[in-house]
Amino acid sequence: MENTIKRSFSAIQPSGTITLGNYLGAIRNWVKLQDEFDCIFAIADLHTITVRQEPALLRSHSIELLAMLLAAGINPEKSLLFCQSHVHQHAELAWVLNCYTQMGELSRMTQFKDKSAKHANNINAGLFIYPTLMAADILLYKADIVPVGEDQKQHLELSRDIANRFNNTYSETFVVPEPYIVKSGGRVMSLQNPTSKMSKSDENTNGFIALTDSKDVIMRKFRRAVTDSETVIEYREGKDGINNLLNIYSAVTGKTVEEAVKEFEGKGYGEFKPAVGEAVAAHLKPIQEKYNDYMKNKDYIVSVYTKSAEIASKIAESTLRKVYKKVGFLQKP
Ligand code: TYM
Q: Residue 181 has what pLDDT?
């Protein structure tokens, strides 16, 4: 019988703080998808060095991220969770895909433009070909869906284009992946500048909630959240700050935005903002407790990523061999 369980692949960079944006846009959905899909998750450390990193910090960020993913509910009995750099096929397929991707396509990527502006003294080639490595991550595992936040949509579209191009040039090789982006939480905005996305690299730490922030810090950041000069809590265009808070509230409580608006009818921002903070802190509390436990058990974390990488590497190798054959390389002795 044909295997009908579909596969999901996603990855996250160990580039420091893990934010509420990462959690609501991606991680939380990864956890849910484990019931329905064959899930593969990677720590995208190869991507992270496109921006200069302190080696010791990169190592600790990777462990912290693995601990956080386990704490959030990634279950290694069901899913694979490994480091991208431990499965050499990612870099190898990326090389091949680079040869099937145009400079023009890569230069249109908004993330490349943003990051080159931000790191003007280090616009390295890796930053430019970042999306082909992402395509390799996904295509190696023949993933049907890729759960990501809205900001990764353009990269996903390029991955689809590359897959289609390769399939059309040779023959059906890759599964063309579908993005999986949730409505509430797919784009969490900065608490200080609600027209730009919540980002861990925001210099103003009040703009983002780190998953490890204490309740006091969370409450303070929500109280200071930038809203507007009106007084009504409504979801509509022009109310970016309030819309963002409503989305966050909805995502962590499971209530719809309409229900949330009703709940706060007649109430002011002074009551609404701390209520969102309370809801977020309550949602994160059990995750933070588990995170602290996992951080005391690094051997377990190492065993998870080691086992997963071995299995992932086998799946990846089978795809890579097919690709090498199709492009005309001699069979490996
Ligand atoms: P990264 O590490 O920047 O983010 C990890 C995930 O979090 C989502 N995200 C958000 N979602 C909603 N609101 C926000 N403010 C927000 N900020 C981040 C991202 O969309 C992402 O899903 N290039 C990727 C990592 C990657 C990858 C892949 C993803 C490497 N290979 C293959 C999918 C498939 C990245 O930098 O994500």
A: 94
